[in-house]
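Sequence in, structure out. Go.
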Amino acid sequence: MFLELNPSDGYLHIQLYRAIRRKILRGDWEEGHKLPSKRILSKELDLSINTVSTAYAQLEAEGYIRAEERRGYFVEPIDHLLSIQSSSPAAPPPIPEDMPPRYDFTYSGVDPDSFPYSIWKRLLRESISSGETSILVQGDPKGIAPLRRVIATYLRESRGVIADPEDIIVSAGTEHLFHLLRLLLGPRANYAFEDPGFAWGNPFFTIQPEICIPIPVDDSGISHTALSASQANVAFVTPAHQFPLGSTMPIKRRVKLLNWAGSKTDRYIIEDDYDSEFKYVGKPVPALKSMDRGDRVIYLGSFSKSLTPALRVSYMVLPKELMHHYERAYSGFICPCSVFIQKALTTFIEEGYFEKHLNRMRGIYSKKRALAGQELSKLRNITISGEEAGLSLLVRIGLPLSEEAIIQRGRELDLGLYGVDRFRKDTTPIQPELILGYAKLTEEEIVEGVRLFGECLADKTANKKG
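Output:
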């Protein structure tokens, strides 16, 4: 008798169980074959009797063998057993992951070394070990009430937005919230999106092109003239820090936009206030929602930039009319955010950790922004804008180069560069434009990354064809 145990099968009883099963399925041990006694097999393989007993019990339960009192164990007929042979290896190869470039100027990153890991570890542990039965139920479809209350307080103090906690809905990302808004606003809604703008680079927002209207952006934000001339009745805007161009909408344009929304009863503005926490020049500009006297602004906020996108917690403040519609028709939508996460986030804000974290990150990001600007200023034939706020800079290149070729050359140098073209619909740039995010990089990586960026601009292979 020879049994080959395979250590990769795991525990010893599983190794033995699979070794015997292989013997039976291959026909080495035919129907009626008597298996060695537990004592003999344990001695031959240097296994404990308990290990052999466990393996035999599993084989008997699955019908491979039978036990006969005072006689031992025998192989059962197996012509009724189905054995599926797979051409793939027993252990499938790991799914390859795209490795980020060494110097990644992504606009979606945060500083990995500054996340308050120890605090979050404690808060998550406490949220589970508190013994509260509330964490074992689905929770309020809008999000747990304590979190909505602290969000309302934060919005009042930091963004000038007076929001009733009952008008706040918490969800897992802006995409989930926008899906719900599509349902609330109904089939007659035509959406105006900034061009260039975040939506055009994310097909989820513009998957129905017949109701999506590109509106050009100037230095003051979305064009009021073009918006008024369009068939749109819902405008999606980023007034605090226009993405990707980086401008801040001035008060005159904000008033015009609010007047546009107030001129018809079916018009709304969706304000995406995605990174308003980070402003480095002048006083923070209040949210557009803070000026909304007609209750026509739907406010979207997120913790992706202020904490981490991995948290997947976003929220919106609905106008009363839309909230009534939500409560009548869609309150059955379960909040997709974990109650554990919501509870920990509530405590994080209530106990002042969030405010301290934001103040600390403003200092860190301000230093990185200044360093990135300083290093970029050493390069010729570029202009920089958008440095007043946010976590990225807009770089316009005054050379006869192709945006795509510059990005490709960056890949060859292990440099992550990101262009504006992917966020355009109809508008055409005068010159190549890149978004350089600095949040994720260390100061040393910023210096070296900008140096490599300079090499990309100097490389003749990046010249436009023809």
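Check: The longest strand covers residues 212-218. The two ends are 76 Å apart (CA to CA).
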